[in-house]
């Protein structure tokens, strides 16, 4: 039986790699992009049917209701990366990142779940971030948005499993996808945080350049989709098995210092 998947943000990075991997596995794949008509070579995966979606626009999200009613798998991958001192983060920027990273993906899941439940089969994968488990200075809004979708997934998972529908979160660590070039930043010219902020961004970009590939994350997403009983969380990259083991064993303050020193911040 051919399964149907919708992957958001399928024109670059993890979304593009996941869409391509799922086509290769025999799925019918819909992929979203803000403007599919303007996609350049290299921004399309062969065999993927592209649809328009702007997660910042509620009407655009609702326009996918008909497609979502028939999908078996939803991969909520699209999102925004953001950095700012909390003191200087504009309210509009905070509201936007939660619309794009939380409210939009949750609404897509709400539109897909009735059909999955009725067919008694479904998978919803939230692509989060290890920053949800390992918070970092100047990344508070982004980390909070990723922690929020993990919270939705973990809680709602218990509601849907009796109907054969499984929700899971994939938490990547550092990934070499060029996302640093698209990260939004908010900081005042005269900010007292400027030196610290710049040092963190330099380390973040360095870690991402040395990170795992989008294809490696895509393989984890596919494994979660194809599992008979998907786990609540799959972490991949940044030495995830060892790092999460240390988190369980070490005091929280030590874990916090390790995370910040990895990003050249002294705490």
Total beta strands: 9
Mean pLDDT: 94
- The CATH first-level class comes to Alpha Beta
Apparent shape: globular
At the fourth level of CATH, the homologous superfamily is NAD(P)-binding Rossmann-like Domain
Helix content: 40-55%
Q: CATH topology, which one?
A: Rossmann fold
Terminal CA distance: 54 Å
CATH architecture: 3-Layer(aba) Sandwich
Please report which band the strand proportion falls in: under 5%, 5-15%, 15-25%, 25-35%, 35-45% or over 45%: 15-25%
What does this structure look like?
The chain is α/β, with parallel strands linked by helices. It has a single domain (4-262), classed as NAD(P)-binding Rossmann-like Domain (Rossmann fold, 3-Layer(aba) Sandwich). Helices cover 45% and strands 15% of the residues. The chain contains 9 helices and 9 strands. Strands 3-2-1-4-6-7-9 form a 7-stranded parallel beta sheet, sandwiched between helices. A two-stranded parallel sheet has the order 5-8. Strand 1, helix 1 (13-24) and strand 2 (28-33) form a beta-alpha-beta unit. Helix 1 (13-24) packs across helix 7 and helix 4 (91-119) runs parallel beside helix 5. The longest helix has 29 residues, at 91-119. 41% of the residues are buried. The model has no long low-confidence stretch (mean pLDDT 94). This is Short-chain dehydrogenase.
């Amino acid at each position: 039986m051919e399964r149907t998947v919708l992957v958001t943000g399928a024109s670059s990075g993890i979304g593009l790699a996941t869409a391509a991997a799922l086509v290769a596995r025999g799925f019918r794949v819909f992929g979203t992009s803000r403007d599919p008509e303007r996609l350049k070579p290299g921004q399309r995966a062969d065999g993927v049917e592209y649809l328009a979606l702007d997660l910042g626009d509620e009407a655009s999200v609702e326009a996918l209701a008909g497609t979502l009613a028939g999908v078996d798998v939803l991969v909520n991958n699209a999102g925004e990366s953001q950095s700012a001192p909390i003191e200087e983060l504009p309210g509009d920027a905070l509201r936007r990142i939660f619309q794009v990273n939380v409210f939009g993906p949750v609404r897509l899941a709400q539109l897909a779940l009735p059909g999955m439940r009725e067919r008694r089969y479904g998978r919803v994968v939230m692509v989060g971030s290890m920053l949800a488990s390992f918070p970092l200075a100047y990344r508070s809004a982004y980390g909070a948005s990723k922690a929020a979708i993990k919270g939705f997934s973990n809680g709602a998972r218990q509601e849907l499993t009796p109907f054969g529908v499984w929700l899971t979160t994939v938490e990547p660590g550092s990934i070499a996808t060029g996302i640093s070039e698209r990260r939004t930043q908010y900081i005042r010219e005269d900010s007292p945080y400027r030196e610290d902020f710049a040092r963190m961004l330099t380390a973040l970009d360095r870690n991402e350049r040395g990170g795992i590939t989008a294809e490696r994350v895509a393989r984890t997403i596919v494994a979660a989709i194809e599992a008979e009983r998907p786990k609540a969380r799959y972490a991949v990259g940044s030495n995830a098995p060892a790092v999460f083991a240390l988190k369980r064993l070490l005091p929280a303050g030590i874990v916090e210092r390790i995370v910040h020193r990895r990003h050249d911040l002294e705490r």
